[in-house]
């Protein structure tokens, strides 16, 4: 579906970003991946793509990421804003530095990268942007004020971009994953005092009563970026095993 199309994925060194890169590689996309983790280089090499070291908190790194993509493959067709951080802390406790960093990486970087990429997409006749938001962009979780706010912002940024870029034939959508079994999440479960109970608790948040797999998010991202979604823009697609289908914890019996 993406033969000859240039696809940029942020935060592709591991987790959901790596699964997204792998899914686009299967569709024969020309990949440009970025991350602050050096493992991103191995992922890019394995998938025949380009790796650009970029700290997305730095505006000039974002510019270099898009410039390198154009230099390598001649344009940009798809951008996936996946990289994010989640500094824990309640609204009372989150430090201003953590707050600013979360907003910069999770919200400002997707906005800036979308503008930079859109200018290149226009030259190619159009394109697609997919933002990786979260169920926490739709509802809030305790002790996660900065992440909740940044993902809520990303959800409405998705709609704004969809409206602003539609005349240029650029579609913009987002996925809102539930809990996904990435290294990150599995580590957090393992570090908890009762890993088995914690895992069960997390599974029970979903109507399907399990964690999602990174590939299940990746498939939704590829769909939204593809021609199969040609009349879909400004949509927020939950990939959450039914978590947000209920106002209660979806999988729990009443
Ligand atoms: P992860 O932490 O495993 O991966 C995120 C990647 O982004 C990492 O490789 C990290 O190095 C990179 N990154 C972080 N800060 C960066 C920066 N300043 N510049 C460049 N790269 C940077 O996380 P994940 O679980 O794979 O999550 C990926 C996306 O999915 C995130 O947007 C996250 O908010 C979202 N999400 C994840 C889950 C989940 O359960 N895992 C649920 C909902 C949403």
Automatic annotation (TrEMBL):
The keyword Oxidoreductase belongs to this UniProt entry's keyword annotation: yes
Protein name in the entry: Dihydroanticapsin 7-dehydrogenase
Key words, A-Z: Oxidoreductase
A molecular function GO annotation: oxidoreductase activity, acting on the CH-OH group of donors, NAD or NADP as acceptor
Family: Belongs to the short-chain dehydrogenases/reductases (SDR) family.
Coiled coil, from the record: none
Highest taxon of the lineage: Bacteria
Cross-referenced Gene3D superfamilies: NAD(P)-binding Rossmann-like Domain
Gene (name only): bacC
KW Oxidoreductase (keyword) present: yes
């Amino acid at each position: 579906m993406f033969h000859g199309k240039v696809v940029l994925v942020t935060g592709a060194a591991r987790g959901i970003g790596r699964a997204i890169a792998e899914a686009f590689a299967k569709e024969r996309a020309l990949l440009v991946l970025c991350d602050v983790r050096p493992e991103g280089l191995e992922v890019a090499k394995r998938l025949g793509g380009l790796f650009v070291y970029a700290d997305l908190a730095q505006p000039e790194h974002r510019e270099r990421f898009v410039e390198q993509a154009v230099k390598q493959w001649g344009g940009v067709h798809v951008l996936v804003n996946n990289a994010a951080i989640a500094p824990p802390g309640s609204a009372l406790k989150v430090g201003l530095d953590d707050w600013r960093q979360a907003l910069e990486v999770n919200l400002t970087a997707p906005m800036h990268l979308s503008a930079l990429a859109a200018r290149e997409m226009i030259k190619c006749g159009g394109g697609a942007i997919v933002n990786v938001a979260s169920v926490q962009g739709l509802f809030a979780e305790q002790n996660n004020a900065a992440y909740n706010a940044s993902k809520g912002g990303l959800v409405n940024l998705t709609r704004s971009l969809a409206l602003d870029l539609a005349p240029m034939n650029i579609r913009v959508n987002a996925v809102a994953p539930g809990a996904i079994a990435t290294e990150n999440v599995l580590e957090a479960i393992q570090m908890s005092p009762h890993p088995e109970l914690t895992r069960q608790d997390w599974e029970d948040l979903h109507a399907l009563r399990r964690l999602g797999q990174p590939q299940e998010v990746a498939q939704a991202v590829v769909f939204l970026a593809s021609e199969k979604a040609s009349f879909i823009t400004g949509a927020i697609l939950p990939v959450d095993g039914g978590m947000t289908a209920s106002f209660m914890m979806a999988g729990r019996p009443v």
